[in-house]
Specification:
Radius of gyration: 51 Å
Order of helices and strands: HHHHHHH
Strand content: under 5%
Largest sheet: none
Helix content: 55-70%
Distance between the termini: 144 Å
Shape: elongated
Length: 215
């Protein structure tokens, strides 16, 4: 007999749905407690120590010189030429002032001899003026050499005064020479007045152009 074929029935399997597992929500992190800040202890102020004052005997010469230099201006170099001219002229005028103040007789007699009684009578007043002008001329000369602004200012005043006085003497001596050309005294005053006026005018122009030196 023929073998009966067994029917094999295939079981139909239903498609299984893939279950996707959702990740569990992360637990919420609790904020960490803030550390309590303790107040910093207040610093105790120490009494300031009194500065030690060095005795005068220990102050060195170098520190004194540096301190003196710090008081000076920071110019670019003074004028030795006009500083020396003013100092020499100031010394000469001071000498004349001393002679006039103490009424040294030979100058008075010289003016009387040359028939200048008016000038001789003015000697005491001229002595005071000459002494003051001469003293300030010396001070201005020192100030110009060490490039000080105050020296520049005093020098300008002295030179203006010198120029004005010299022009007056120049006019008077020229007038006298026109009347009596043989007057040696008037000729000498004229030459000296011309020289003094030239020095004063050139000095004024020079100091005006070099003002930047005396900062």
């Amino acid at each position: 007999m023929p073998k009966s074929k067994k029917k094999t029935t295939k079981k139909k399997t239903k498609p299984t749905k893939k279950i996707t597992e959702e990740p569990a929500p992360a637990p919420a992190e609790e904020p960490a407690p803030k550390p309590t800040e303790e107040p910093a202890p207040k610093p105790v102020a120490k009494p300031a120590a009194k500065p030690k004052i060095a005795p005068k005997s220990k102050v060195s010469k170098e520190s004194s010189i540096q301190r003196l230099k710090s008081y000076l201006s920071k110019g670019e170099g003074g004028s030795w030429l006009y500083g020396i001219i003013l100092m020499v002229a100031g010394g000469f005028v001071i000498a004349l002032g001393i002679l006039d103040l103490f009424n040294i007789t030979f100058l008075h007699d010289f003016l009387i001899f040359y028939d200048q009684p008016g000038i001789a009578a003015m000697l005491p007043t001229l002595g005071v003026t000459n002494f003051v002008i001469g003293a300030f001329a010396v001070i201005a000369g020192v100030g110009l050499i060490i490039d000080q602004e105050w020296g520049w200012g005093i020098a300008m005043v002295i030179l203006v005064y010198t120029a004005a006085q010299s022009i007056v003497y120049l006019v008077n001596s020229a007038t006298e020479l026109s009347i009596s050309p043989s007057s040696i005294n008037a000729l000498g005053v004229l030459v000296a007045s011309i020289a003094a006026t030239a020095v004063a005018v050139i000095g004024l122009a020079y100091l005006g152009l070099t003002k930047y030196k005396y900062a």
